[in-house]
Amino acid sequence: MSLWTQQFAQALRREQLKRLPPAHLDAILLWLSHPENPQSADLTEAFSRVDLSRDTASRRIYTLLDQQLFSGSPPAPTTLGLAPNTAPEIVKQRYRRLMQVYHPDRHATKPLWATQRTERINLAFDAHRRGSHGWAHPTRYQKLSRCAKRSCSNCGNRCAHIGDI
């Protein structure tokens, strides 16, 4: 078990955290979405050692994520919890992890809450892809994006032009 997981579990148990550690946010998101994943075993063991149940740990982590990622209005690129100059591949991985964690199907008792989070995650990811809100890499994803129009005469609905994506 790594030192950061021990320290994190102890601080979470004592409710001493103000923020989740940015360097380990992906590992925490993986634990929330796939606790059975072997890469999540360290966190599961650390929580067990400090007598922190999965439900309690999850609830506390979601509270911290809400404060850290979703407190601002309007939605900002910081919703992804990444710096503006982060590589597009890392941004896409974080986007996928956040969508796995917050997908409304995973939160049957709180669908509105989950839908609001996924909408903000989508807006932040879209802002990154477009290069707006100070985000870099405006053209890396354009060819993968779909046009907002049902049919685009410029690209046959596979846009590579900034005005339509």
TrEMBL record:
Q: Which Gene3D superfamilies match?
A: DnaJ domain
Keywords (alphabetical) are: Chaperone
For this protein, the record's Pfam families field holds: DnaJ (PF00226)
Q: Which residues form the J domain?
A: 75-145
Q: What is this protein called?
A: J domain-containing protein
